[in-house]
Design brief:
The chain is an alpha+beta fold. Helices cover about 35% and strands about 25% of the residues. It is globular, with a radius of gyration of 15 Å.
Length: about 150
């Protein structure tokens, strides 16, 4: 069996039909959903040059099999912005091909090119498969998240 040819690149505005099942898969993995208007707003933001939000896709043999969303935000701790890797998802049949690692490293490169001082992200404590990967790519500083949803 030949390893697939992998390409990491920005998602194009005409790729919503390919992106949406992966976004839905990500939300399903975390046992949640968002209203249709949030899908629409997210896709619009990812494709608006005035927004600090971006999406990359992992293409295996030309098929979109993984996505990552990331955004830039200010910090009181550094001059350079932070880059928040918000969502990362690879379809089940394409896992173990190195796509998650490739997507994270691509975000690192985008963040460096933009002058960001760090990339950070969250995952659920029960996501042991992802955590095994993340432990090889970044430090876990031990902070605990608190939130209030409105």
């Amino acid at each position: 069996m030949t390893a697939p040819q992998v390409l990491i690149r920005a998602l194009g505005a005409g790729e919503r039909a390919e992106w949406e099942p992966l976004w839905r898969g990500y939300l399903h993995f975390y046992k949640t959903d968002v209203p249709r208007e949030t899908y629409d707003a997210t896709w619009a933001r990812l494709n608006d040059s005035k927004e600090p939000m971006f999406a990359l896709g992992a293409y295996a043999d030309g098929k979109l099999t993984g996505i990552v969303h990331y955004l830039f935000h200010r910090s009181c701790w550094t001059v350079g912005d932070y880059c928040y890797l918000q969502d990362l998802f690879v379809v089940e049949g394409a896992r173990k091909l190195g796509l998650g690692r490739a997507l994270i490293k691509a975000v690192y490169e985008k963040a460096k090119a933009a002058g960001a001082s760090r990339v950070h992200w969250l995952t659920h404590e029960s996501n042991s498969t992802a955590r095994a990967l993340y432990d090889t790519l970044a430090e876990r500083p031990g902070f605990i998240q608190y939130r209030k949803i409105f």
